[in-house]
């Protein structure tokens, strides 16, 4: 199937976006240090595009998207998503977000509830517990092997400075007390049908946090994936997730 490649200018960045298909709009938001290309590991994208207009951006500062100013928040990523929808003439969309993308979607769905009609949040959280912030701080201090650098260079095209900034993001998130700190009242404003997907062995976001989202978001369902870690949509979980995602989005 033909792929439309675009670069969309938003405040402070140029965002690379891929589109496939011509059905109801479906936005796919990848995880931290990933790119829009990651979704091929979760879906047969050509098949998905037979049912949806698939819109997959590289998040700010990831892949082929830029972030010259260096500022980074989940709320800012949500503004980027809304700007992309506006540029493409999309009033309402369905969406799937994993990790970084899921937290971005929470901001979109609370900032502009009418824009998202149904969404799947994979490895989301309403807030960062202190244990998670400590893990993020440790991650930002990690050394990276030549193999890791080579893999990142194959994904992110704007040089080693871009990659270094991405590896620094966990520390930024750990030090920001407000960007991910949703109250029950804020989550109650979400109007989208919502499927919350979490691994029961996620080291960053314990199942209790997914339950908080489930109890607070009015039209939500919860899927706890047994014996699964963070982002349980790949490898052995790919086929079950893809089937359930399409079923849920179809309503």
The total number of structural domains is: 1
Report on the biggest sheet.
8 strands, mixed
Strand runs, count: 8
Helix content: 25-40%
The SSE order reads EEEHEHEHEHHHHEHEH
Here the CATH topology equals Rossmann fold
- Give the integer mean of the pLDDT values: 97
Structural class: alpha/beta
> What's the tally of helices?
9
* Name of the CATH architecture: 3-Layer(aba) Sandwich
- Please mark out the parts with pLDDT under 50 across 5 or more consecutive residues, or reply none: none
The CATH H-level homologous superfamily: Alpha/Beta hydrolase fold, catalytic domain
Indicate the overall shape. globular
Distance between the termini: 25 Å
Strand content: 15-25%
What integer value in Å does the Rg equal? 17 Å
Strand order of the largest sheet: 1-2-4-3-5-6-7-8
What is the top-level CATH class? Answer: Alpha Beta
């Amino acid at each position: 199937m033909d792929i439309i490649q675009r670069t969309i200018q938003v405040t402070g960045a140029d965002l690379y976006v891929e589109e496939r298909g011509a059905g109801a709009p479906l936005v796919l938001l990848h995880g931290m240090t990933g790119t829009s290309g990651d979704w091929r590991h979760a879906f047969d994208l050509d098949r998905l595009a037979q049912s949806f207009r698939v819109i997959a951006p590289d998040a700010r500062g990831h892949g082929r998207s830029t972030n010259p100013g260096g500022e980074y928040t989940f709320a800012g990523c949500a503004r980027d998503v809304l700007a992309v929808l506006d540029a493409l003439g999309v009033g309402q969309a369905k969406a799937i977000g994993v990790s970084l993308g899921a937290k971005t979607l929470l901001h979109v769905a609370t900032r502009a509830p009418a824009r998202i009609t149904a969404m799947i949040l994979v490895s989301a959280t309403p807030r960062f517990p202190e244990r998670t912030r400590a893990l993020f701080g440790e991650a930002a201090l990690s050394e990276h092997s030549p193999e890791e650098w080579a893999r990142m260079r194959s994904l992110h095209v704007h040089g080693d400075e871009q990659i270094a900034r991405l590896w620094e993001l966990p520390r930024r998130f750990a030090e920001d007390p407000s960007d991910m700190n949703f109250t029950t009242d804020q989550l109650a404003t979400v109007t989208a049908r919502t499927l919350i997907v979490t691994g029961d062995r996620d080291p960053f976001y314990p199942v209790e946090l997914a339950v908080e989202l489930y109890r607070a978001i009015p039209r939500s369902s919860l899927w706890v994936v047994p014996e699964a870690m963070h982002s349980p949509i790949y490898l052995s979980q790919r086929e079950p997730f893809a089937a359930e995602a399409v079923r849920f989005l179809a309503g």
